[in-house]
Design goal:
Layout: H1 8-31, H2 36-54, H3 58-64, E1 65-76, E2 82-88, H4 89-97, E3 112-119, E4 122-128, E5 132-141, E6 144-154
Parallel strand pairs: 1-6
Antiparallel strand pairs: 1-2, 3-4, 4-5, 5-6
Helix pairs in contact: 2-3, 3-4
């Protein structure tokens, strides 16, 4: 153990080291939050989901979904009664296999994908489809990006 007194110089050095450590902790997660490969994989997952629906490709749909997916929409009637309708991954895959959106005219098959945010192994994605908007919560699960939750809303009729 040193007998040297603790000086202002030591305090400045310690303070700078602590500040550098703190800043590196703040910056490190952001730096690892997103890669181009992750962005491409997230986008492809969203496209597999929406294009799989339009083409009745159940294999493509299933590839995009976590097995415990919940797809939900809030609905209300003219009396102001609200309910939450939902579909499981199995229901969505079965509905896709049974024809899905393949009756949607080609000109109405919108598949605009916008990644809203990515943080580490989680992402939020907006998909503008034919007559609805999907908000996807996507997770990196066992090394690949899959949709865990979908909250969707119908577009107003024109």
């Amino acid at each position: 153990m040193s007998n040297k007194p603790f000086t202002t110089s030591h305090m400045k050095t310690s303070s700078l080291a602590a500040s550098a450590f703190f800043i590196s902790c703040l910056i490190a997660p952001a730096a690892s939050a997103q890669t181009q490969a992750d962005s491409a994989a997230i986008r492809q997952t969203a496209l597999d989901y929406i294009q799989g629906w339009y083409t009745a490709d159940a294999t493509r749909m299933e590839r995009a979904l976590h097995p415990e997916l919940a797809k939900r929409i809030v609905r209300s009637d003219s009396l102001g009664n609200y309910r939450l309708d939902q579909q499981s991954a199995m229901t969505l895959v079965t509905n896709t296999r049974n024809g899905g959106g393949n009756q949607t005219p080609q000109a109405d098959r919108h598949d605009d994908v916008r990644i809203l945010d990515i943080y580490r192994n989680a992402a939020s994605v907006r998909v503008d489809a034919s007559n609805w908007v999907d908000y996807l919560q996507v997770a990196k699960w066992r090394g690949r990006w899959v949709i865990v939750n979908v909250l969707w809303e119908l577009k107003p009729k024109t």
